[in-house]
Amino acid sequence: MPAGSIFKRCGCRHPDNGKPYGNDCPKLRRANGAWSSEHGSWAYQLELPPNTDGRRRPLRRAGLPTRRAAAEELDHARALLALAPKGDTRRRTEIADLLQSAVRAKRPLPDVDRIRQRLRGDGVLAEMPTVADYLTTWLAHIDVDANTLRGYESIVRVHLTPHLGDIPLDKLRTSHIRAMFTAIERRNDDIIAAKASPDPAVRKTVAGVRPTGPNTRQRIRACLRKAINDALADELIVGANPAALVKVPGEPARPIMWEDERVQQWKETGKVPGPVMVWTDDHVVEFLDYAAIHAPDLFPMWHYMAYRGPRRGEACGLRDSEVRLHRRETTINNQIATHGYTPVHKAPKSHAGNRDVALDADTVKILTAYKALRAKWQLAAGDAWPNTGLFFVRPDGHPWHPNAVTQRFRRLVRKAGLPPIRLHDLRHSAATLALDAGIDIKIVSEQLGHSTTTLTRDTYQSVSKQLHRDAADAVANKIKNRRAKAA
């Protein structure tokens, strides 16, 4: 291996032609030929393995403060080149590329131990990117649906790049990620304080700005964890995934039942107790009765959602061929999602999302009446009626846009004077009512298309009052029986 050389350079120029002296400046050496301690800076040169085209490429770094600093960096470069197995030209060339890139960018040389770790894999030993650079490349190549990609792009742009972007990917630590979430929490506090400020000018600074909620924080971590897992799989980095080791502050919002006391407070103050609210069975009945009169075109879909709990996109995308009223069942194997505002047909969210949903007699009656109404619409439209293959359609036969269904729902809830919930919360109401009715949690989980009963249990059992009442009664009865025996 070449030994390299250490020398001094300066920025002086020749008085005759104006060209830099480089290391030939007469001031760089004393009369005895030794290097001057008062002029120039230290530099080193090391002959790297040639380029792939055979051209030589010397590695030079100048501007070092002392001879010792130059000698240490030269030794560092030689140690890196020595990591390549004997006779492995490809690895020597890759290490040389890293050295040359670092010097040109005026960055420190790569860490010897980290390069040694990366050499254990068989992948290309490329220069370590920053988190921002890696995420940009990752987004360009990741194979996910358009909606998921849109969410990842937003998370990378708004959160990951501003907080973590400058960190080399292999130096990302749990401390960096925790610091990001701490900064997000502080920003949330600032937003909340500004919104509550008596100063209109302060409130204006956060107009339209929302705090980053628990669900979004979970998605931030999930996005980063996925990106780092892919980097590990590609052997770009080695070791543990720091995003997997970080606990995200705050839990996803749990559903809260609209009990009478909460409804009364909402009527008096306009405040909603939480982001995820669930109607009681009385609220569901009141809404459906109101919708049957004031929104007959959407009432059957909302009835189906309130009774059986499909997601919005699953109801909009329910295929006509998958509705078997004579057998009291439907099959969910399609949904209409939105990519931006564009509706797109796609498969359900997971394997468990492909499912059969049994129907009760009341729902069969409602859907049978809807089919008769739809036939009248089709007869009136004549040849203009489109063949969408969907069960729930608009009166003109075209598919329902999911956002339009949501907007109609919000307006109708306001007109009915009911406590507000999201359209998705009809699904929560269906699950809660099923659990209160004593339905086994596995059946409810399958009805909702959950991949495990754990998700169903964690999400809904806390809001199911009847289950808690039954548990309380069981304990009381046990004590009562014990007392009776002792008497």
Outline the structure in words.
It is built from 18 helices and 10 strands. With 487 residues, the protein is mainly alpha-helical. It has 3 domains: 5-118, no CATH class; 131-245, Tyrosine recombinase, N-terminal domain (DNA polymerase, domain 1, Orthogonal Bundle); 256-470, Intergrase catalytic core (hpI Integrase, Chain A, Orthogonal Bundle). The strands form 4 sheets. The protein has a 3-stranded antiparallel β-sheet with strand order 1-2-3, with helices on one face. Strands 6-7-10 form a 3-stranded antiparallel β-sheet, with no helix packed on it. It has a two-stranded parallel sheet with strand order 4-5. A hairpin with a 4-residue loop joins strand 6 and strand 7. Helix 4 runs antiparallel to helix 5. The termini are far apart. The mean pLDDT is 88.
Order of helices and strands: EEEHHHHHHHHEHEHHHEEEEEHHHHHH
Overall average residue pLDDT: 88
CATH class of the largest domain: Mainly Alpha
**Residues in helices, as a percent range:** 40-55%
The CATH homologous superfamily of the largest domain is termed Intergrase catalytic core
Largest sheet: 3 strands, antiparallel
Tally of DSSP helical segments: 18
Strand order of the largest sheet: 1-2-3
Low-confidence stretches: none
Please identify, by name, the CATH architecture of the largest domain: Orthogonal Bundle
Distance between the termini: 97 Å
Strand content: 5-15%
Overall, the morphology is elongated
Total DSSP E strands: 10
Number of domains: 3
Structural category is mainly alpha
What is the CATH topology of the largest domain? hpI Integrase, Chain A
Over the alpha carbons, how many angstroms does the gyration radius reach?
A: 34 Å
